[in-house]
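DM from R.C. (forwarded with permission)

"hey, sorry to bug you on a friday — could you get me a structure for this? deadline for the figure draft is monday and I only need the backbone to look sensible"
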Amino acid sequence: MPLIDLSSPVDASFWEPEPVSITTMSAADGAKHLSAEMLEHFGMDFDPNVLPGAEFLTNDTLSLTTHTGTHVDAPAHYGSKATYGEPRTIDQLPLDWFHRPAVVLDLTDVGIGVVGADVLAGKLAEVGYTPQPLDIVLLNTGAARLVGTPKYFTDFAGLDRSGVDLLLDYGVRVIGTDAFSLDAPFTYIIDQFKKTGDRGVLWPAHFAGREREFCQIERLANLDALPRAHGFTLSCFPIKIATAGAGWARAVAIVD
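My reply, with the result:
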């Protein structure tokens, strides 16, 4: 049963609009930290030099957003109110949404912009697949090859409202993409709005979540490594962060 990692890393060396900070405590500093913590919290003296090599355990402290690296957006991310009730946070979502049969659609020929229902219907027909309720649909836009660079945030295709509605009408509740966003790039969206004045072009994929409950997996990777368009299960359980609008995930394809 081959396992294929579809996750992008959290890497402080990557270019990010909101940079990642990772500070590592060495094993030697870990020993000193242990001694200080035991004294402060428990009133116990402990000499770190009695440890092998005067070392204890390393630790890493990270500063990052919940939307860094591969992550799942919860309905609460899309806005404070929803027509279907109180939007759920990432810790409130059903686990069975995140371990389901999946299909990947190749959108690498689309370019920068938006993809609608007509294109998605054609791509589903190409691979001969009809999504079943709770299936996960993945979009391979080709953006993963740009990860770590500024272009990762500007050069990809997203969905318009019709594309989201098409998939949700099948009963899909999780849509994934290798791009920074399920919507088109921010630069593209704002440019289109300035040209047209149409508010409907403003993040339609995300704002659809205010009317229909669903999740997105963004910033996937390695979708080209999947041996076929369907016939695999995606496991992408989000980290259980209380009251958060998103949570990091290790997305793994389990190939039947």
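R.C.: lifesaver. The chain has two domains: 5-9+66-255, 21-63.
me: no worries. The domain at 5-9+66-255 is CATH 3.50.30.50 (Glucose Oxidase; domain 1).
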